Amino acid sequence: MNSSANRKERIRALLKGIETGNAEAAEVVNAEKYIQHNPQTKEGGEGLAALFKRLSKTSPRVNIVRIFEDGNYIFGHTEYEFKTSKIGFEVFRFEGDQAVEHWDNIQSRKGQNLSGHTMVDGSTTVEDHENTESNRSFVQSFINDVLIKREFGLLDNYIHSQNYTEHNPRITDGIEALNSELSCKLENGNFLIEYNKVHRVLAEGNFVLSVCEGSFNGIHSSFYDLFRVEKEKIIEHWDTREIVPPREEWKNGNGKF
After folding, report:
1. CA–CA separation, 76 and 65 (whole Å)
2. Angle at the Cα of 193 (from 188 to 195), degrees rounded to 5?
3. Where are the alpha helices (DSSP H) in 82-189?
4. Domains in the chain, CATH or no CATH each
5. SS3 for 22?
6. In what order do the strands lie in the sheet with 193-204?
7. pLDDT tens digit string along 86-117?
8. Cα–Cα distances in Å, from 171 out to 96, 126, 175, 204, 237?
């Protein structure tokens, strides 16, 4: 098994360990070096073991829908059944065979949007590995031009005009619905959705994940957006949004991003 496949399988085992509370699944984590960015989780393997033990009491179910590799990063799109149903993105940075840093973004699961799509269905096949870097750059430009600078007139340059599939539960398929959502303003004149900073763009083939910071409805938020790119157009999109808790509620000092 090559290094990439081994890392992916070890992360699958780690996340599935949530179901059983199996602390051994956390051995993929280098507890001495581990940097934890989930504000609700303590540092290191000990923090993960305690988290697994606590979560296992809720009879959880974990399903990794998609998993990708980008250099030393493994990132996955996952559905969780705890006491409630949640959708998340998990990002791990590796040094050698062990994970040394972790970020995530988890949102309560919503039902199908008006186009009939769920938050996780759709394509799972990674293709076009030779286009990884061009797809990464393309999505970076989309984030800067459209999401941060709000140049909505450029949407046609980035979004597939006929076959754009949207998995956000608030939005339907197509450019017009996306334009309407991004253009929506609050009573105070601010935008409902504001992207202020891009922290990370990870890619494997035709899939690109962006990690951004901003606000939703005036509340400090983190945005994780997964894009599928086909022939230099975004053709499919999934996302999660999470409120960034205030500093006094953090269980580690590393920050969300």
Report:
1. 8
2. 115
3. 132-142, 155-158, 175-183
4. 3-109 (3.10.450.50), 129-243 (3.10.450.50)
5. coil
6. 165-166, 234-243, 219-229, 207-216, 193-204
7. 999 999 999 999 999 999 999 999 999 999 99
8. 40, 25, 10, 26, 11
Residue 46 and residue 213: Cα distance in Å, rounded? 29
- The structure tokens listed for 14 are 């780690």
DSSP per position, 166-190 = E--TT--SSHHHHHHHHH-B-TTS-
Per-residue pLDDT of 167-206, as tens digits, reads 999 999 999 999 999 999 999 999 999 999 999 999 999 9
Angle among Cα 32, 105, 220 to the nearest 5 degrees reads: 110
Average pLDDT over residues 223-250: 96
Contact partners, residue 48, CB within 8 Å, separation at least 6:
14, 26, 29, 41
DSSP classification of residue 159: B
Residue 251 — very low, low, confident or very high, per pLDDT cuts 50/70/90? confident
Mean pLDDT of 221-232: 97
